From TrEMBL:
PANTHER family, alphabetized: CHEMOTAXIS PROTEIN METHYLTRANSFERASE, CHEMOTAXIS PROTEIN METHYLTRANSFERASE 2
UniProt name for this protein: protein-glutamate O-methyltransferase
InterPro entries in the cross-refs: Bact_Chemotaxis_MeTrfase, Chemotaxis_MeTrfase_CheR, CheR_C, CheR_MeTrfase, CheR_N, CheR_N_sf, SAM-dependent_MTases_sf
CheR-type methyltransferase domain sequence ranges: 6-279
Organism (species): Methanocaldococcus vulcanius (strain ATCC 700851 / DSM 12094 / M7) (Methanococcus vulcanius)
Known EC number: 2.1.1.80
Pfam families assigned: CheR, CheR_N
Source taxon at top rank: Archaea
Record-level Gene Ontology MF annotations: protein-glutamate O-methyltransferase activity
Keyword terms, alphabetized: Methyltransferase, S-adenosyl-L-methionine, Transferase
Length: 281
């Protein structure tokens, strides 16, 4: 498992307090970090140690116990957040080609997309923009299209449902798209319009413990898998395979690659953009 060397570098006292922090995360914050790499968890804890000016795990553990508001900040730091719309524009261009291909095909009556580990909603809403634009372009107003966006963090899901974003998070979107799909609340904030929200359904889902969603045409799980150890990654890849219809697409983050059984099951559609396809039987 990655990160073992990091914990081995700690003194026995520091190792003990690191483990106590992990127990606190599990029992108090109700976040199961046992599936994450130690190195990742340690890096995230150190972000909060720096912010609270704690120089050791012992000091931070004591700070955590005595400052209730720190719990929320640590939980937030442990949760991976996508920070902007259409980040990695090249992959979104490929997604646009796939979606447009479906929309212009009159035989396609419904489209089902799963945004797994959707965080605060930038990804599913970003995909919804592509869908909406394609439906308008090919005059498919009645096409049945749904994006199911899932995450393990209920607070972040509530934030995603509201759909309020900072202006800087929209920097990759053309001005006409912003005007069409967002309401300007003030100089700093924009809110997603209901015309876009209607495509996206947010729900709680644990990638590790819960069974996969079914009958999906596309699964996006970008920059989430890297935080799990290899065995868990392989199990999740197989769940995605099960979730997809034949011919469906799996899209991973730039630093993520398929391995294990899933590598044999999927065919590579676009290696550079980490897009894989479930073969048509």
């Amino acid at each position: 498992m990655g990160g073992v060397n990091d914990t081995e570098k700690l003194t026995p006292i520091e190792q003990m307090y690191f483990k106590r922090i992990l127990n606190h995360i599990k029992n108090v914050l109700k976040i199961d970090v046992t599936q994450y790499k130690d190195s990742y968890v340690m890096r995230r804890i150190k972000v909060r140690m720096k912010a609270t000016k704690c120089s050791s795990f012992k000091e931070y553990y004591e700070y955590l116990k005595s400052h209730e508001d720190e719990n929320e900040k640590l939980a937030e730091t442990l949760t991976v957040n996508v920070t902007e719309f259409w980040r990695d524009i090249t992959v979104y261009r490929e997604i646009q080609k796939i979606i447009e291909g479906w929309v212009k095909d009159r035989k396609v009556r419904k489209i089902r997309i799963w945004s797994a580990g959707c965080s605060s909603g930038e990804e599913p809403y970003g995909i919804a923009i592509i869908l909406s634009e394609a439906m308008e372009k090919y005059k498919r107003k009645l096409l049945n299209a749904v994006i199911t966006a899932t995450d393990i963090d209920k607070e972040i899901l509530a934030k995603a449902r509201k759909g309020v974003y900072q202006a800087k998070q929209l920097k990759n979107l053309p001005p006409e798209i912003i005007e069409k799909y967002f309401i300007k609340l003030n100089e700093e904030e924009y809110m997603v319009k209901n015309t876009l929200k209607k495509f996206v359904k947010f729900q709680f889902h644990d990638l590790i413990k819960d069974p996969p969603l079914k009958n999906m045409d596309m699964v996006l799980c970008r920059n989430v898998i890297i935080y799990f150890d290899k065995k868990i990654q392989e199990e999740i890849f197989l769940k995605f395979y099960e979730a997809l219809n034949p011919g469906g697409f799996l899209i991973l983050g730039k630093t993520e690659i398929l391995h294990g059984e899933a590598k044999k099951l999927f065919k590579t559609y676009n290696a550079r953009e980490r897009i894989y396809q479930k073969p048509i039987e």
